[in-house]
Amino acid sequence: MEVEDYLKTCKGIILPIGSTEQHGPTGAIGTDALTAEAVARAVGCITGVLVAPTQVFGMAEHHLGFPGTISLTPETLLNVVHDVVLSLAKNGFEKIYVINGHGGNIATVKSAFHKIYSTALNRHLPVASRLRCKLISWFHVLEVFEESKKLYGDKEGQHATPSEISLTLHLEPSLLQKQHSLPDPAPAGPITNAEDFRMRYPDGRMGSHSDLAKSEHGKILLDKAANALAEDLSKFLLE
Question: Is the pTM of this model over 0.90?
Answer without folding.
Answer: yes
